[in-house]
Fold:
Amino acid sequence: MRLAFAGSPEFAARILHSLIESEHSLCVIYTQPDRARGRGRRVEYNPVKKLALEHSLIVEQPATLKTADAAETLMGYKPDVLIVAAYGLILPGAILEAPRLGCLNVHASLLPRWRGAAPIERSVMAGDTRTGVSIMQMDEGLDTGPVFATAETPINLSGSITELENKLADLGYELLLKVLTDLDHPDDPPTAVAQNDTGVSYAPKLTAVDRRLDWHQSADELTRRIWALSARMPVRIEVGGLRAQIIEATSGDGETDAEPGTLTQANKSSINVQCATGTLQITKLRIEGGKGTVLTPAEALNGYRSSFEPGTQVQ
Structure:
C-alpha cells in the first residue's frame, strides 16, 4: 500500500523504521516543526525527522493541518492510508478524509482507557498493572474512533520506561501490519469496533507540575512517578541548596517519626526520604547545573555531602 506517516517522538520513529523495512511504500512523512532545545537553544531534529532524512523520505512539517492548503498537499501524495503515531497535531475532517482508506492511529493504551497525549506515563503513574496498544480508525474526536485490534502487555517496573515504550511500539507495528493487510482486501474489509462508553480516562500532556513530588503520597506512588518520567523529563527536587533530578528510586517499607519530605538517611547505596507511607530510596540522581552526569548515592555524597544531611527537608 502507499502510506503517509505522521509522528514525532522515538515511539513513532520505531514504528516508522519497521514500516520502512516492510513491503509498503512511504510517500511522505509528517512531523512536528523543528524546535530549539537544550541550554544553547539549538535546533534539533526529532527522531522521526532524523530517520526520514536518513532514508531520503519526503518530510512535511506544517505548524497546523487546519488549512485548505494542508489537505490539498496531503491529497497530492495520493496515500491509501495515513498512519499516525504520537504526532502531536489535531487532524481535522479534511485531512481524515484525504487518504483513500482514511487514517489509522497506533495508540499506546487499551482504549478507551488513557485517551490523549501521554498514555504510557499516565498508566504507570496510576498504578495500572497492564497496558497495551490499539489500532484505531481516526475520527474528529480525541482518540474516540472505532478500534480494529488491541494487544496487551504487563507493566514491569523492574525494567525501564524506555523498554516498555519499545515493547508497545513493536506490538503496535505487528497489529498495524495485520490491519493494513486486511484493509487491502476490499471484498472482505475488517470491522472496527466502537469504543465502550464506560472505562474512559484521559492522559493529558505532561507538564512541569508532573515533575514535582508530593511527599504526602506513598513511596509506591512516588516510585511509579519517577519511573514513568525518568527517560523524558525526570522529577525534580531541591535539597540542601541543590537542585537535582531523580533518575532511579525504589520504595522501602521502613517507617520513621519524621515528617514527609524529611531526608532520613544517606549512605553509599541510597538516599532515603520519608513519605506518607514508606520511604523513597533514591539510587540514581543528576545534579542540575553540574556536568549532567548521573550519580550514584556514593558519588553524590562524595561531591555534595553537606546537602544530604539527615533531617534536611527535601522540596
Notes: The two ends are 54 Å apart (CA to CA). The domain at 208-308 is CATH 3.10.25.10 (Methionyl-tRNA Fmet Formyltransferase; Chain A, domain 2). The first strand starts at residue 2 and ends at 7. The chain has two domains: 2-203, 208-308.
